[in-house]
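Predict structure. Chain length: 59.
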Amino acid sequence: MGSWHDHYQWCQKALVETDLQPLEQTWLSSATTALEKADTQLVDLAQRLPKRSGKKKLP
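Prediction complete.
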C-alpha cells in the first residue's frame, strides 16, 4: 500500500506499545512526507491524463 500506510500503521502500534513511542514522531513525520509526495504524484498523473470532452459517454 505504500510508505504512508506503513508509517501510519506503525504510529497506531505505538499507541499501545510503549516501547515504540519514542519512534512515533519520526514515523508521523515520514508518513506526512510520504502522503505529500503521493499527492504530488497524483496531481502530475491527473495532468497527463487526456481530458474528457463530455461528448462521448462511457459504456
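Summary: The first helix runs from residue 3 to 14.
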